[in-house]
Amino acid sequence: MATKHKKSTINISDSWSTSLKPGEVLAKIRSFFVYHNIGYEKLNDQEILGTQGSSLSTHFFGGWLMSPANLPKKINIKLKTADHTVKIETRITETLGLEKMNDSLRGEHEEYFIELLDALKKEIPPST
Questions:
Q1: Rg of the chain (C-alpha set)
Q2: pTM higher than 0.90
């Protein structure tokens, strides 16, 4: 799992392969998005783009008063099928748009992003 910082932007990414069938992977991603209240921007066999949280409510209430699940972010999942496996590449990007982010808020974002990726890996387990 990789964490990158560019200005105040946070990106967390990970990739793994699973032995689940492509249709099963898509179904699990759909149910994962519903469970975690993630909206779709794009959904097809190769790429799923989602958003979670709200910039408006974050700017109105302040990032420190909100749950990390409600802070704005984009989720990008790419799927590649080959030899009875599906490779899953994920990236979660913070879209709050702050020039500077204090360490506490940054830490909350990173921790939640890692929890979200771990939950997705539990739904779609890596091949053994």
A1: 15
A2: no
